[in-house]
Specification:
By secondary structure, this protein is an all-alpha fold. The protein is built from 4 helices and no strands.
Length: 92
């Protein structure tokens, strides 16, 4: 029995675009903290302008929270499935 030849859809392009946008947002999110570390007005408002230890602590706390969030949310992604998890993350 011959199988019908299916035309390729554009869904793979849509998926690639959605993943690209999601990764760009995640990248910008990580870069924002690096930009804040060199912003004089932010550092003065936080009172850590001349304190390299406080600047390092700020980066460390962000990275620890970011890493823990990835561990927690990746297991949620496994539980609910990739489609529902991506939908929830994009909507919220």
């Amino acid at each position: 029995m011959a199988r019908a030849i299916e035309k390729p859809t554009h869904l793979r392009h849509q998926l690639a675009l959605i993943l690209l946008i999601t990764l760009l947002v995640a990248f910008i999110d990580r870069v924002n903290v690096s930009v804040l570390i060199v912003d004089k007005s932010f550092l003065e408002a936080m009172g850590i302008a001349n304190d390299p230890v406080a600047k390092g602590s700020l980066m460390t706390v962000f990275l620890i929270c970011y890493g823990r969030g990835n561990i927690i949310f990746s297991s949620i992604g496994d539980w609910f499935g990739p489609r529902k998890t991506m939908l929830i993350s994009i909507v919220s």
